[in-house]
Structures are given as structure tokens and as C-alpha cells.
Amino acid sequence: MPTKWELAWNRLRRTEVGLRAVLGLVAVTLLTVSIHGMLPPQPERPGNLAIDARYGLPAGTLHWHLLRGSESEAAESEEGLPPGRVAWFHAVEQFIAVWLLMAGLLGVVALYLFFRERRVLVKLHSLTSVLVLLVVTVTLAQWLAREVPYAELIPMIIFGQTLAVAYHRELALLFAGVMIVAVVLGTGMEVGAVLLWGAVVAWAILQLDSIRTRTKLLYVSMGAAVVGVAVRLLVALLNRVPVDAVLLAELGRLALACVVSGFLMEGLLPFVERFFGVLTDMSLLELSDLSHPLLRELARRAPSTYNHSINVGALAEAAAESIGARGLLVRVGAYFHDIGKMLKPGYFIENQADAPSKHETLEPTMSSLVIIAHVKDGADLARQHHLPELIIDFIEQHHGTTLVEYFYERARGKQESQPEAPKVDENNFRYPGPRPQTKEAAVLMLADAVESAVRSLKDPAPSRIEAVVRDIAEKKLHEGQFDDTNLTLRELRTIEDSLIKSLVAMYHGRIKYPERRTEDRKETERRSESVTAPHRQQATARANGNNSPKNSGGGDTSNAAVSPAGGQTGSPSENG
């Protein structure tokens, strides 16, 4: 029997689903209005394939349709319908057809989102943003198509690249397809326009695998211009259009529109990142600068924690890239994941060195609170310094809901020795979470745990490193720390192998140079004595004031004292 809270939650979930459905219907209606209500109809010319498509006719039948138009109007007038009502009836019929077509396309998109990209559906803000952006792009593209030739490519490219940056390229391509169909329906362009728009927008999307430099978007737009010019030229040759000054001017406008879209997208990129809460590789490279104020403060207050964070970043980046995740994102998250320790560095073992532990005078519960608090302290510091939410997620999730085992076992041991003491509550010794929500966060959790464990080994042999990594990964898995990450067992094993390889390289054995034997040292000292003895005797002779060859070559030096620096001084009597 479900409780009232479960019933309330289910009701809320149904409400959320209803809100998303209403939002989708509104978007479909706005798209349909944009296609048929916000723009005047295109001029109809006999033989134009675009008009055939708009009226749902097979290509090439428009001329017959126009010829029979007068007969149809006459027949309808005979049925008692005035021409005005006939036109209104056809407009409504066309509106419904377009509405159903767009609803079907967005329905397919909704299924894709549900099975492959559910985060867009879960966050109402994300879904609203994408649909509003789609409607605005379609409306703006239709208006620009009537005013400036090929200017419609600018908002279309920006729309596709924005979704590629905010989510990924598959989702961007899917929405771009819906956008192109909507613009074609609204402008009445011919089939060649679909090929042209599809090729240019697809190129602009597919080339955005990563944005590590500010010029990447410009290069992508230039590539899109080349693709667009090539496709338009091929369509023109297919339709037997002569390559003259008019066509060349058209190709120039097309290329200019693509390049302008690159400049605009470069300027809009920071706002796209902030609005959608994403980080491009270019922003991550800026954050990975070790001169960041937080990292410099961490290095000053807790140098061992800083060194640990750098090591974890190297391990996690390689492990993330081994499964196709964003290695640069994980590395930056690793740099900042322990910044909360700078507030109380002496309470963490890596910063204690040979000093006595401060936890000796604390109760296990209090020690656990101090250790756990570094997660909240780190998130607060990150927000104060305006770090992106993606980086803050790493700070909050890198321990998940794991148990602070050392102090928990101390508390249990103390409770067993004092039967009258209250029972130890395990929840007081667990991190608050949340558990890792992405594969990147799971990689960081593992890298953080294994680096600390391997560093504490007295003999980090490869076999011992492998055993430690396997045990920690298995334990995290059984605790359910990876349940929300969509991480597969094969990927987990790949991550383990990468961590083992990196740790073995980091803690590889070094050649121990043997000490020199006593006989060899004595022989070397004897040879050195034989070489330097004449020089010492000459120095003694000069100190005694005797320059005769006899005294300088073999004078008595029994009263000479050797200084610590290896030089000689006279006897005490001579110096006195």
C-alpha cells in the first residue's frame, strides 16, 4: 500500500509529464503559426517543385493542378461554397496537415530524448530552452530567407552548434533536421535548398567534437562555407544553371553567411556555456591553469593535498579517455576536488608529516565531522570563486555516500568497550553525497581512492597495486556508488586497467645503487693521499718560513694541524 508521500510524488511526476506534453504541443503550434501565419505566402510559379511540396503534390504536377484550378473552383461554387470560404477551408486544412507533421517529428525527437538523452526531459528548463530556441530559429530563418539571400544559414548554423556545445552532436543533428523541415515548409524552397542547408549545418555540427582554441569555430565556419559552395554548385550544374556572374555572386553570399555565423558563434559561446551550464574544452583549459587563486592557496596551505590533486588529475584523465569520456573535464575536476581541505589542513593525514595527529584528542564522531566537512567547504569555496557547476559537482560527488571507515571502526571499538554507551549510528560517519551522477565523476572517485591507498603502501609492487585497485573498485561497485552513472562493467574494468598502468608507472621501482666496498674506498683514499701529499708538505714549509728543497720536499709535519676545509695550519707553538 503506497504511503501518502508516494502518492503525492506520483501525482507530481504525472504533473511534470503533463507539463512537458503541454510544452511540446505549444511548441508545435508556434512552429505551425510561424510557418503559415507570420509570413506572407510565396509567389507561386508553374513548375516550381517547392509549391508542389507545399501542397502535398507529386513533383511536376503543379502545372496540371493550376490548369484544373478553375474547374475545381467552379465545382465548389456549384456545391454552394463561396470562393472565400473555399480558401479559408484550404488554409485550415493546410494548417492541420503541417501541425500533424511537426507533431510527428517532435514526437520522434521525444522518444529519442526519453531513451538516449533523458536529462533534457528531466530538467524543464533545458526542454523549454531547446524548444524556444527551435521556434525562434525557424521564425528568424524564414524572415531572413525573404529579406537577404542565404542569410537564413546564420541562425540555422548557430542553432545546430549551440545544441552540439550544450549537449552532443547526435541531439543537435536530430533537432537540426526538424528545423530544416520547418524552414522548408515555411519558405517553400526547392529540394536543393534542403540538400544545401542539411550539408552546411551537418558539417558545422559534426566538426564540433571539441573546442580547445578560440579559432576553432572560425575554421569550422570556413569549412561549412566550402561545403555549402560545393553543394550549391553541384545543384546548379544538376539543374543546368550556367556558371555566370550571378551564380558566383550567390556563392559569395553563401560563403559570407557561413563565415559570419562563425564570428557570431564565437561571441555567443560564453553565454551559451553559462545559459546551458556546459563547459567547452577551451574553458576547461583556462580552468586547468595552476595559477588559479584557489589552487595557489591550496598549494600554500596544504602542499601535500595539492600534490595529491595533481596526481589524481593525471590518473583520472587517462582513465576517462580510455572509455571515451571527457578526460580534460575530469582532470580539472580533480584539481579542485579537495580544495575544502585548505581550511583545516592539519586534520588530514597527508599534511601532518611527522606531527602528532590532531584526531588523538577528538571523539571519533567529531573527527568524522571534520573530515566530511571538507566536501561542503570545498563546494562553498568554489561558489565563492564562481567556479562552474560542473566542477562543483565533482567536489560534491567524489566521495559519494561512502563511509569514513577509520573513525567508524574507532567508534565501534569504543562502544564495545563501554557497553552502557549508545549504539554507533553509521549515518553519522557517511558522506552526504550525492553519489556520482556521471561517468567522469565515477572515474574521479576511483582515482582519488586508489591514489591515496597506493601511496600508503610500503612496497608498491605492481601485483600489490593491482590488488588494491581491484579491491577498491569492487567495493565501490557493491556499495552502489556507480548506480547513477550508467557505467558498464566493461568500462569499469577498462578504468581499472588504466589506473593500474598509470600507478605502476608513477610508483615504478628504481635501481638501488650498491654501496662501495671498504677496500675500494681505502684504495681511493690512499691514491688521493699520494697525489696531494707533496702539496701539503710545500704548504707546511711555507708556513714555517723554510724554503729549502730538503724541508719543502720532506719536512717534518708532525706538528701541523689540518683544518676542516682540508688546508693546513701551523703548529700551535708557531701560530702562537
Describe the protein's architecture and organization.
With 576 residues, the chain is mostly helical. Helix content is 69%, strand content 1%. The chain is built from 25 helices and two strands. The protein has helices spanning 4-36, 49-54, 62-67, 69-78, 83-116, 118-122, 124-147, 153-166, 169-187, 191-206, 216-238, 245-276, 281-287, 293-301, 303-322, 327-336, 364-384, 389-397, 405-417, 439-455, 462-478, 489-506, 518-544, 549-554, 572-575; strands at residues 561-562, 568-569. The protein has a two-stranded antiparallel sheet with strand order 1-2. The longest helix is centred in the N-terminal third of the chain and has 34 residues, at 83-116. The radius of gyration is 38 Å and the shape is elongated. It starts with a helix and ends with a helix. The model is unreliable at 38-79 and 545-576 (pLDDT under 50).
State the separation between the terminal residues, measured CA to CA: 108 Å
Shape: elongated
> What is the CA-based Rg, rounded?
38 Å
Strand content: under 5%
Kindly state the number of beta strands: 2
What is the residue-averaged pLDDT?
79
- Biggest sheet, in brief? 2 strands, antiparallel
Run of helices and strands: HHHHHHHHHHHHHHHHHHHHHHHHEEH
**Helix-residue proportion:** 55-70%
Q: Helix/strand/pairing class, anyone?
A: mainly alpha
Strand order of the largest sheet: 1-2
The unreliable regions are 38-79, 545-576
Number of helices: 25
